[in-house]
Amino acid sequence: MVIKICIGSSCHLKGSRMIVEQFQRLLEKHQLTDEVKLLGQFCMGQCQKGVNVTINQQMISVEPSDVETVFNTYVLKVLNHHE
Ligand code: FES
């Protein structure tokens, strides 16, 4: 699984860096750092929706306060589903 977080300037201003850190922390907590790749990506042309995160090609707009919910829904549930 790949999680890409927009690090373009608009998303950066909306807290993409915090979002990267939160994803990193959650991946470590759930010991998923080998299974899930965390990457940055450049502006996706959807700045007004930012912070834009793509998880397995699906684009989701995330606020720093949403990270845990998004992680549970789009990462944990999906991974458990494949087990
Ligand atoms: S800066 Fe993130 S979509 Fe433009």
From TrEMBL:
It comes from the Bacteria. It holds the Pfam family 2Fe-2S_thioredx. InterPro entries: Thioredoxin-like_sf. It comes from Hujiaoplasma nucleasis. This is (2Fe-2S) ferredoxin domain-containing protein.
